[in-house]
Design brief:
354 residues; mainly beta; 17-stranded mixed beta sheet; two-stranded antiparallel sheet; 5 helices; 21 strands
Length: 354
């Protein structure tokens, strides 16, 4: 299987893998470690993650020619951010940005050789409040740049438009964790995750990747991270570069897009449609394929892949209540775009992978 096919078929796994890293930035808030006089926020996440599953390896560009078990060492800085320049916003989006170097070692190929890859990871999450406690839009961006060449790089951008806005409730993530004692909390369901208090504002986070067969919880965890905090700072200002444009294409192609096929398969789709409602970023004339499908309105499904990890991250509102509408998907030479629109043609979800 070629690298491009690997990358296309496992784009979702990159999100899952990075959300696990993200979990350590939120878990401190559930531990109720507070200072009465000062407010604190995440500062740094460092440690190791053993890529014990095929999905985790593929997520960082390590295909079937590499054995599972490579080790990712991370050193990520966390900052609260606000974005400026959003032309479609009524208020200033805010959120956080996590970025820093990632070094992957112990990469073993099928004949026993060892290798390593260095890269730089930047993750951005933003939300715009329509009014107090109600979110109107959300953006989630992952930018992975590897030293091994452009073929290992990946960029993922997801936009959610909530109409009507969704309620951001207070303490909505408490049910995701069980307080073992005053110094430890652990996940109730899903992959095992344990947070231990080291000092008043530092945590050690251990856990298992989804579907990991070799992870033995605290005896041999896949995830071993240390998370530190700092006194809350004024948010860093970033440019709002998450621009998408409506693409006018009236006719389907013979070929079926495949770069975002895994996400498409999460939805309950039925008949093909010529009602294309597509948004993308810097699309060009190198269109390879485009098709649309009607969304099954009788399913009444809630589409929320890896919802427990999104909740840990603080993104539980990133979900789609499947209603009547259209899924439109396009594929270009180096990118894929998909949009979910409602029955009135209004954009609800937009996904870009490249």
């Amino acid at each position: 299987m070629t690298y491009q096919k690997i990358k296309a078929s496992h784009s979702v796994e990159l999100l899952v893998f990075l959300i696990i890293i993200f979990s350590s930035t939120i878990i401190i808030e559930n531990s109720k470690i507070e200072d009465e006089a000062l407010k604190f926020e995440p500062d740094n996440i460092s440690g190791t993650i053993t890529l014990s599953t095929r999905d985790a390896m593929n997520a960082l560009g390590l295909d079937e020619s590499s054995q599972t078990g490579a080790i990712a060492e991370i050193n990520l800085t966390v900052n609260s951010v606000e974005s400026e320049g959003c032309l479609s916003c009524n208020s200033t989006p805010n959120g956080f940005q996590i970025e820093g170097p990632v070094e992957i070692t112990n990469i073993r190929n099928l004949i026993g050789g060892l290798g390593r890859v260095e890269g730089y990871l930047k993750i951005t999450y933003l939300k715009e409040y329509a009014k107090a406690n109600f979110i109107g839009k959300e953006w989630f961006v992952i930018d992975w740049n590897a030293s091994g060449g452009k073929e290992l790089d990946s960029y993922s951008q997801i936009t959610f438009i909530h109409d009507p806005p969704v309620w951001e409730t207070i303490d909505r993530y408490d049910a995701s964790f069980l307080e073992v004692n005053n110094l430890e909390i652990k996940s109730r369901t899903g992959p095992w995750l344990l947070a231990k208090v080291l000092t008043k504002h530092d945590l050690n986070i251990q856990g298992c990747l989804p579907n990991s067969l070799n992870c033995e919880k605290s005896f041999s965890p896949d995830i071993n991270l240390t998370k530190t905090q700092k006194i809350s700072e004024i948010p860093k200002i970033i440019n709002h570069d998450f621009v998408i444009n409506k693409v006018d294409i009236n006719k389907s192609t013979v070929n079926t897009p495949s770069k975002i096929e895994n996400i498409r398969n999460i939805f309950e789709l039925k008949n093909e449609s010529e009602n294309h409602n597509l948004w993308c970023d810097n699309y060009s004339n190198d269109l390879i394929a485009i098709k649309s499908w009607e969304i099954d309105s009788e399913s009444s499904r809630i589409i929320s892949p890896m919802s427990s990890w999104f909740k840990i991250l603080g993104l539980s509102s990133i979900s789609f209540f499947q209603t009547e509408g259209v899924w439109t998907e396009s594929e270009y030479e180096n990118a894929g775009c998909a949009s979910v629109s409602d029955k009135n043609g209004k954009l609800k979800v937009n996904i870009i992978f490249r």
